[in-house]
Amino acid sequence: MSAETEELILVDAEDTETGFLSKAECHNGGGVLHRAFSLFLFNQRGELLLQQRSASKRLWPGFWSNSCCSHPRRGESMPVATQRRLRDELNIETSLEFVYKFSYREEFGDSGSENEFCHVFFGEVGDSVRPNDHEIDGIRFVRPHDLVEEFAATPAIFTPWFKMEWQTLLDEHRDKLAAYSSI
């Protein structure tokens, strides 16, 4: 389970580790730049698994997002962190392929901000996902073409990082995306 007291890895603009700070402090105010990851998991039909963030989340509660996203903790490698969160959130394990990384900053009103240096990965998933109801309010699979239409029709229901990442995947990593999806 994720906790506001867990120590996250602070980084600079080059993703070099610079220190540690609690998750709560990393997300207060304008946020402090820290390492994160976003996972895009596709089933055998090429559909992307989406999750609806729990209503109890501090930032973007109830919003739809990519399959899984979180942070490595102090002393934790990216492979260990990604597998931990896959087990915690979706009760699965799967191999992941690194795609790209980027940094972004987004405010969520007075609740705080995301200020992350995010590593993006692809993976495969079966249909027997069992989401943790403390972390996730719902899941669904969507065809990539339908997702593009949903972003255009109802952009306000999706997390900002998910929209940014998806556009970058379409614009700069379409070949990798096509290997996993029905794009």
What's the gist of this structure?
The chain has 183 residues and is an alpha+beta fold.
Please name the defining characteristics of this protein.
183 residues, alpha+beta, single chain, globular, Nucleoside Triphosphate Pyrophosphohydrolase, 26% helix, three-stranded antiparallel β-sheet, four-stranded mixed β-sheet
Helices and strands, with pairings:
Layout (H helix, E strand, L loop, with lengths): L6 E5 L5 E6 H5 L6 E9 L5 E6 L10 E2 L2 E3 L7 H13 L5 E12 L5 E12 L11 E7 L1 H10 L6 H13 L1 H7 L3
Parallel strand pairs: 3-8
Antiparallel strand pairs: 1-2, 3-6, 4-5, 4-9, 7-8
Commentary on this structure:
- This protein has 183 residues and is of the alpha+beta class.
- It has one domain (7-180): Nucleoside Triphosphate Pyrophosphohydrolase, CATH 3.90.79.
- 26% of the residues lie in helices and 34% in strands.
- The protein has helices spanning 23-27, 78-90, 144-153, 160-172, 174-180; strands at 7-11, 17-22, 34-42, 48-53, 64-65, 68-70, 96-107, 113-124, 136-142.
- The strands form 3 sheets. The protein has a 4-stranded mixed sheet, sandwiched between helices. The chain has a 3-stranded antiparallel sheet with strand order 5-4-9.
- A hairpin with a 5-residue loop joins strand 1 (7-11) and strand 2.
- The longest helix has 13 residues, at 78-90.
- The mean pLDDT is 96.
